[in-house]
UniProtKB/TrEMBL annotation:
TM spans (from-to): none
Keywords: Signal
Superkingdom field: Bacteria
Keyword Signal: yes
InterPro entries the UniProt entry points to: Beta-barrel_OMP_2 (IPR025665), OMP/PagP_B-barrel (IPR011250)
Pfam family, any one: OMP_b-brl_2
Leader peptide range in chain numbering: 1-24
Protein name, as recorded: Outer membrane protein beta-barrel domain-containing protein
Positions of the Outer membrane protein beta-barrel domain: 23-172
Ranges in coiled-coil conformation: none
Statement: the UniProt record of this protein carries the keyword Signal: yes
């Protein structure tokens, strides 16, 4: 997995270095996460959290496509209630997505709608659950998945929605993949 991520970053860097007129843009994004666990027999309720981080758009010359690596702090997890038990699994990740972003060119230069998709790697930074002292040992250290999203750049600001779907179980034993719907906003420099 590390080799795949390194390859993607090297490829993005190679595209940026070998194209002298490449567009590059740093951005800051933040927003609200609504997280849950998918592909499990247990019934969970969503957990709200935050996400915040940096993106870097690497433009491909004469193309509406950019490669956008990023790094985010993302709160995930879910609430469980069954019988007399009510608890919340709080999972915090350092999430590294690398997405291909396609911009729809309009006559209005101030508004540029876009869609994007690509893989992400999540590194677990913290795992807590009330009443489970060794909960960190039950959560895998990495999460791998895909992210899809849509939004718009409005001059130097951006807004959008995205969904990240975990492809691997979040836990060492048992089922449950991260699924997170996010509403994001940011600014590009």
């Amino acid at each position: 997995m590390k080799k795949l991520l390194l390859s993607v970053f090297l490829l993005a860097g190679l595209v940026f270095i070998t194209t002298p007129d490449a567009r590059a843009q740093l951005g800051v994004q933040g927003g609200l996460n609504i997280a849950n666990f998918n592909d499990t027999d247990d019934s969970f309720d969503s957990r709200s959290g935050i996400m915040a981080g940096l993106t870097y758009d690497l433009g491909i010359p004469m193309s509406p496509i950019t490669i956008q690596p990023g790094v985010f702090y993302a709160q995930k997890g879910a609430k469980y209630s069954g019988g007399d038990v009510e608890t919340t699994a709080k999972l915090d990740y350092l999430e590294i997505p690398v997405v291909a972003k396609f911009a729809f060119i309009l006559d209005n230069p101030m508004l540029t709608p876009h869609v994007y998709f690509g893989p992400y790697l999540g590194l677990n930074m913290n795992a807590e659950q009330e009443g489970t002292p060794d909960f960190e040992d039950e959560v895998k250290g990495t999460d791998f998945g895909v992210v899809v999203g849509a939004g718009a750049d409005i001059t130097k600001f951006n807004v959008g929605v995205r969904y990240s779907a975990g492809l691997t179980n979040a836990f060492e034993e048992g089922d449950g993949k991260n699924g997170v719907f996010s509403v994001v906003a940011g600014i590009n420099f």
